[in-house]
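call fold(seq) -> tokens
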Amino acid sequence: MSDTPFPPLSRRKFLYHSLLGVGGASAALPALGAPTAAPAGSSRRGDSVRVAAVTTEYRPWSHADVILGRLIQGYRLDVEPNWPPVTIRAMYVEQFSDSDISRALSFHHHVPIVKSIREAILDENGKLAVDGVYLVGEHGKYPYNDRGQHLYPRRRFFDETVAAFKEAGAVVPVFNDKHLDALWPNAKHMYETAKAMKIPMMAGSSLPLAWRRPWLEIPIGTPIREALSVGYGGTEAYGFHALETMQCMIERRAGGEAGIASVQSLQGPAVWEAMRAGRFSRKLVLAALSRHDPPIGEDFEQRNPNPIVFLIEHRDGLRSACLMLRGLVSDFLFAADLPGYAEPVSTQAWLQEPRWGHFSYLVNAVNRMMLTGKPSYPVERTVITTGVIATAMDSLYEKQRRIETPDLDIRYQPVDHNLGAYRHPDAANNRDGGWVELFNGQNFDGWLIRDYAHKPRWEVKDGVLIGSGGQGYIATTEEFEDLELFAELRIYDTADRRGNSGIYFRCQRHDDLSVEYPRGYEVQCDHGDKSNPTGSIYNLNMRGSRAQQSAIEDGEWFSVRVKAKGKEIKTWVNGALAANCVDTTHRYRRGNVLLQLHHQSGVVEVRELRIRRI
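ret:
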């Protein structure tokens, strides 16, 4: 098992590292200048807060490097260098390897290394000297048990932190990197202690904050029938990452997370036998593997004869599975079956190499807790995944038996936030000057297909997206708020009626299936509609929402441009202003982009579709 943040580099990635001249922490994260020391007694009310940094080992590419290094040397959220409003008061480093860099960083950036966790947290009078604590108990020379679990001192780090809080008579937020502890009793103790003492706490992986290719965020409250993640690397260390990749998605289902009823691990041929018996979906496996770089096809069984799967039963009836395909995959992948959609949704949690930029978003999320005193998202997500990976390791050791998990009867609700790279405003607009190609000219990556009547057909031919055969729509998985959109399309009808389509934006979730299309703003694309000509905001009934009668004929290519900022909406058709209005109710603020197909005999063709946030 590798002890770097992720498994060894492929030859292609190694060459990329070599060309960039990667040599250590300073190459991974260029120094932005020495930090300005926070004034003594700084607090959340000021511009900067101070934290204690506690770690097992600090060497290049260790978790201390990719997490704590961002507090010492700054970080980027893709566009501008960020100097964090959080500084390290003192570091406790338990082990010093031959490649240690903590002492050099301490010298150059004036961050003292102290001899105990207590000393990192308290001042000479036994009072709190920090506004938060980072616990990074990953890497270093620590034993494994007979179950293959790496026994890092995470509970001990936490207990010594709590002892300092008790001495001071006060608490501050705590972040625990990765799973709470390898052993469930220790993790349970940590969680229950934090609750009892009202310690604001976050924990977990960087994977939930990574980029998603294609973009995917399941709207809160969406029903999910089945879900699956795919991971690589060591069973415990990277199985945890794969579980967090999935949990951050499925916690958003209708009702939120309902807790775990049981876990069972299978290994080798038993995995594929379970798949063929319907215990997890082959279709979901293929959907997830289609997002791999490069994609993996139907022969995945033959190519990986010794897989491992964690089969998870949730208390609300959801089935989920985490499939570990070491030696076959090198990406973290996710797929889910959503009611009402013809095909599974799927994505890759993309890790920015060799800069490990996804850790910047993790640090940024944790820093928000340090500044506000409130967790950015529920620690219960990681309590659940900690319990699942611990039980999965027990199941493997105990001859792959199914284990009931009464301790994981933990329920929680997700929160919406824009802290992940997949949604953060800086990251989202750092693509071709902010423009995103919604249609890639090859397939439906990033789109969901919904039928309404007559089973319409959506296809891609010669770089053109074509819809025909009945009422329905395709919608982006990505949501947008203020936006500028550009499309080139044409409409016509095979039964000598007029072509009728539309481009929706800020679409809401389609809960009421008795209604043909979801709620949202529609830019009408119907050259013969005298009430709402092409370019109108359909049925908005606001001054300026109706375009002039269209001069475009069916079968002609035409362009539509939309600009929506707050309540203001403008459209252009072939470059001429069509609608210019203000929706005083501001009824739709955020949502998907949707392409409509209206008539059974109608056809819509799209050859360009791009968008940018404004």
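The longest helix spans residues 380-397.
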